[in-house]
Amino acid sequence: MNLEKVKSDIEAAVPGCRLQIVVNGSPSGQHSLLLDREHAFAVAKFLRDDPELCLDYCSNVTGVDWPDTEGSGYLEVVYHLYSTVKKHGPLTVRMRTEDRKDAVNLPSFTPLWRSAEFQEREVFDLYGVVFDGHPDLRRILMWDGFEDHPMRKDYVDPDDYEYEPTAHDAVLKRALEHSNRDEKAGGCQ
Amino acid sequence: MDQKLKIELSQQGIFATTLEEVYNWGRKNSVWPLTFGLACCAIEMIATTMARYDLARFGAEVFRPSPRQADLMIVAGTVTKKMAPQVVRLYNQMPEPKYVIAMGACAISGGPFKQGYNVLKGIDRYIPVDVHIPGCPPRPEALIDAFMTLQKKIDAQHLTGDLRPRHLRADTSSEFVVPQYGAHDLEPAKNPKLWNITLKATPTEPRAGENEPGKS
User: Fold this and answer.
1) ipTM
2) Which chain B residues are within 8 Å of A144, Cβ to Cβ?
3) How far is A157 from chain B (nearest CA, A)?
């Protein structure tokens, strides 16, 4: 699949869409296509239904947290699309949220590929991306009532270090902070 | 009872024993585990019960599907924080006397997921564990060894006196606090009556040539 050709095909089929090729500089050269939020669903529908591309299988959905990029940063969702009919793929498709706090909405691809349902729930659970149009957007790994998103880079995990037989490096630092705090508080209990 | 006297009596055809011995002998040879597995260790536990390793030799072939009929809980596998309340609740539902084997690195300490956010750092934070087995996963022989250790422990328990176990004391409860799902972690994060180990971190001496100015 020629990504340039895919891009021009999409631009011809979905007027007004803003596409961008994200270049992968590594030897594998797996470049990907960045979609804009407004036209992403129409573009994805085209990718699935176009007789030449016929990308009928969404194998993977994952999230990436970019906290320091472009001011307040953004969250990114990556889809890997394959065609079982044409035997080609993957086409890597990305979408980015506006920021990491309130504008974290993206269109859901679950109406197009049913296999995205649980994976989008996982991205919602661990990264906090809200998928508009998802039929059942609930947490899937963590419990309801859990407030954090553990895969975000600024996640602070529960401070429950109690016993570290071979503490070193970052763990040792935290362990020392702990023992100092516990001594001040008069022991653990 | 004096062992020498007992042997001498048995040579004369007289069988002498105590109620405690008969009671414990019966108990230790009919420990029924709870049908209960959490992760890959459960596969080894299942293998232990099958013909090759045959846990039935020790009287533990009847895995009960209800906690009301079980004596032993084998915590076989990773206990996630999402699963921990259910594990404690199942333990509370078991009748006394009840025992726990924590099987595998995850159940005893969190194992490879110890630094993670959603794995309990050992089930002994919430329920009292009788035998810990390290291993990832432990071999069936290790589980059999743990089971025999538990049998010895049951055999040594006294019916009377100050050392009698929990289930023979009226003033101790057999129920333990079930943790609740909190906004960031389980609440409480541990049962302080069971788990009150203070963290002791001792920085190791820097190795020769390390962290010294003037050397790269």
Assistant:
1) 0.79
2) 181
3) 6
Chain A residues with CB under 8 Å of B184 CB are 146-148, 158
pLDDT tens for each residue of B90-132: 999 999 899 999 999 999 988 888 878 889 988 999 999 999 9
Cis? peptide before A90, omega within 30° of 0: yes
Sign, CA torsion B186/B192/B197/B200: positive
By Cβ distance, the residue of B115, B118, B204 closest to A142 is B118
CATH hierarchy code of domain A3-157: 3.30.460.80
Closest CA in chain B for residue A167: B201
- Domains observed in chain B: 31-158 (3.40.50.12280)
**Separation of first and last alpha carbons in chain A:** 63
B3 touches chain A (CB under 8 A): no
CA distances from A132 to A93, A97, A127, B141 (A): 17, 12, 15, 52
Q: Tell whether pTM > 0.90.
A: no
CB-CB contact of A48 with A55 (8 Å): yes
Which candidate from A143, A171, A179 shows the least CB-CB separation from B181? A143
A182 and chain B in contact, CB less than 8 A = yes
pLDDT of residue A165: 67
Q: What single-letter amino acid sits at B56?
A: A
SS3 category, A138: coil
Give the minimum alpha-carbon distance from A104 to chain B in angstroms, rounded to a whole number: 21
